[in-house]
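#help-structures
NK: newbie question, is this the right format to request a structure? protein is DUF4872 domain-containing protein
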Amino acid sequence: MEIIEGYDHQSGGHCGAMALRNVAEYYGWNYSEAACFGIGGGPAFVLYEYPDESWVTFRASPTWLERAFFERLGIPHSYRRGDDFETAWDGVTGHIDEDDPVVLFLDPTSLDYFSEEPDHVPPHVAVLIGYEDETVQLSDGTMENRQTISRSTLADAWVDERFVSLQNEYLVVTRAARTEDETDATAAGLRQAATYMLNPLDVKRDARGPGEEGLPALRSFADYLGRWPDLPDADRPVRAARRAIDEHGEGAAFRSLYAEALGELGQQTDLTPDLADRMQLVSREWQTVAEHLAEIPERDEPQPELFAEAASMVSDIADREESIFADLGDELGYRGGRE
């Protein structure tokens, strides 16, 4: 197998942030998972209509995190999507031949190494680090070990249309250099998170779909929760929501990871230390919501009061996040307008 030597695979809680961490480590930039998440502009909240269902699902981190990280730091890179499989295959294997790891954007439900079917909105991010004629080796930051999959599995996972459009999408560093000031990039990433959550239309990027985003989407989700007892099978959206909060076992809609980012990156940007502490408290509230949702399918019949309680918890979280992101935006100079 043609494989990149010197690539150190490490695992963490967020697939994209760990892909960035591992690639950054390979090029000698030494960013933590939390720093990558913060510079990339996490977290998020995006609602998506579930295909052929009368309920919604969501993701708690942005679809553009990886691209934003490289753009913000001014790292020269190539981003491609839309090629047919053979063209994309020739492209990524050529980069491996040059010892450059390739960030892939995939459908997680097509990856056969997960013990349970993952239930998060694509893209799932992994790094291609090796290949031979009929297999590839991936560094998936949500898994403890490197994963080997077949070429045909990669072909299936590289295309999806259920929630967002994926077509053989990848990103690769073309020159190992950072051309933007790191403190400026950090401040921009943190400021964009505040902008996005408070006023998602002020952010040029989007979540690749027509769904609501930011705090308005989080408040809408609370409203949906209150109506779910009327669904024919309320257990299915409840399980999907719980898994979305607990994506990859992080357990707190990535708010704990973002609290770490605020603590680490806030030292560079002179943020008030209590922002990280407040976000850590919000992460615990998200964990409580996940635990509450886990109890609902265990009941024989849907109980509206349980859904109402969960909806109230989410509404309270929206209020607390609004306060945190407003203060974050104020400290970093966000006054409205396009970011």
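mod (FA): yep, format's fine, and the tokens are attached above. The chain has a mean pLDDT of 93.
NK: thank you!
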